[in-house]
Amino acid sequence: MKDWLPEDTYEFIREMTPMVCVDIAYVLDSQVLLLKRKDFPMRWATVGGRILRDEPIKKAMERIMLRETGIIFRGEKINMVGAKELIMPIQHVITLVIRIDSKLEKKPKIRIDDTSFAYKWVGVDKVRLRGWYGDILKEALK
Question: In angstroms, rounded to a whole number, what is the distance separating the alpha carbons of residues 51 and 58?
Answer without folding.
Answer: 10
